[in-house]
């Protein structure tokens, strides 16, 4: 159904699944790539950038939806260092130098520092206000060694009460809070006030450095999760300088992130624009990586680009909501469909509706097979263009059965109607697109991509729309990459599809198909409806000319058969398709259901009961005449509306114009025999039978015979299927019967 391939070469680079959204009434286009990577203090963020174009692809503007800026949130870090008697004076000084080196390295960053020494008692060395005032290092150098016990839990409690929660200490209320604990001894007290539990509840991040002979398991109980990663052990205080670089990287990674280890990633890996759809001044983007890859939709409304996020908080992490998105309408209510192909491992489709300016989940559709990626592709279809969404097509490109990969589901009112799958390993259903009417039946059609078919070269399947089932069960056309007459290394033909434009301005739908490194424009062709009718002259077969008393079996013409072809364009092109000629091959069969035909097409050969012809149709109606013959003596089996000697089959061989697939390929018509009835077309016969014998007496002997003359008369209407039964004694046997005379009354 599609020919005339136009190829546009492009360099796709490393862009991750760019999506193109058409805006017809403003003559703008949007293109978004979800692969915008940017660094933030050693962390990689993955967001997106969208471009707005005019119809001639002049870049008007660009914007970054749901973009995560590299914000440096304040980090309040408290050094809680051991001052017990197990530490020598030089080791105590090494401890202070280690603290000074870290503060110097992180100078002019978002870190703010405080320091607390603990032993049997705990005291503040300097607080956050001292650090801001520039007096912190002086107070650190002047700090004296306590040289007593190691009351670690009491010290942690002191930091919570007197540093983080004491306004006079200068802590920032919404800062990320960190404790770096440096000790060479095991805790000598117990956690009577649940200091560790309180730290966890307040999201205080804890890094532990154990020096010399400490019980590492006990120290790990003080660290934040994962405890093994947040606990360091060195043999002596000289090792502090050895771990300085790695330790600095560990705490440096805390800066620049809006979240800490107990919070979720929100927009950092959002990849907004992974899927996209535009509807009535609203751009809806799939934000598949938002909220720890739980996913969301991101709505940009109006010329001022007012932004709103749409979520389903009940989804698990890594559900990938927003992997696909489609828009629908039901009774003037706007609907958003979005796929979450990793939700609960089988995949899920969510249907959102707006209730009092808030988007709520109206329905969910669950997949059936683990790992099938159910919901990876969506396509909503208004099959009859009445403004209401009739069907939702859901792709599961990794659905697997023996020798099959990929499946699409067709839902009506979110209830499954049917499914389509193909015997291939091509990821059938990786792309699904609603198409403007291709065949002129007034219904939307569908294209489905299988980009890994034929050893990864790809293929596209065309399904014609069907009002009850959504699409017809069998595809009408398969377009493979090999048909594109491209180099053999072409890959992934059918990865993306769009078919909602008339690029050639010829009144016909064109389909754009994406492949690796190339875009193909498939031009559709006019679709012609050809109807055929059979006429007969005369309209009834006269029985008057049939005469079985004639000595010669004469062949004569009983009627003339006229075949008329009418052609009309089902599509609405401006290509002048009807004015072009088209070739039609047809076949005529007479009495096709009978083993022995009563009529034929030649006055010289009674065996010619079929006729084939190829003709050119140039006008809206073209007719052809054929003569039909019978023999003068035809043994009738009774009156009925006999099967027409004109069953016609159409074999269309035109190479430029397509015939409507719903066009009937054959036509039958019955030709009645003449009826001579006087009352309302109902025949009433008046049959009289009489007989006489040649001898008045029958003598039974060898070689003797008796001649019976039977006279059968009809004084009423014509009689058909008339039978005469003769009964005789068992001693007699029937010899023969001869027709003597026929007289027409």
From TrEMBL:
**Record's GO cellular component terms:** external side of plasma membrane; integrin complex
One of the record's GO molecular function terms: integrin binding
This protein's membrane topology, according to the annotation, is: Single-pass type I membrane protein
Where's it found, cell-wise?
Membrane
> What's in the keyword line of the UniProt record?
Calcium, Cell adhesion, Disulfide bond, Glycoprotein, Integrin, Membrane, Metal-binding, Receptor, Repeat, Signal, Transmembrane, Transmembrane helix
Q: Pfam families given for it?
A: FG-GAP (PF01839), Integrin_A_Ig_1 (PF08441), Integrin_A_Ig_2 (PF20805), VWA (PF00092)
Q: Kindly give the InterPro entries that the UniProt entry links to this protein.
A: FG-GAP, Int_alpha_beta-p, Integrin_alpha, Integrin_alpha_Ig-like_1, Integrin_alpha_Ig-like_2, Integrin_alpha_N, Integrin_dom_sf, VWF_A
Q: Name one GO biological process term.
A: integrin-mediated signaling pathway
Which PANTHER family does the record match to this protein?
Answer: INTEGRIN ALPHA, INTEGRIN ALPHA-L
The membrane spanning regions, by residue number, are: none
Where's the VWFA domain? 76-251
Which residues form the FG-GAP repeats? 360-420, 426-472, 477-539
Keyword Calcium part of the UniProt annotation: yes
The similarity comment for this entry is: Belongs to the integrin alpha chain family.
Q: What is this protein called?
A: VWFA domain-containing protein
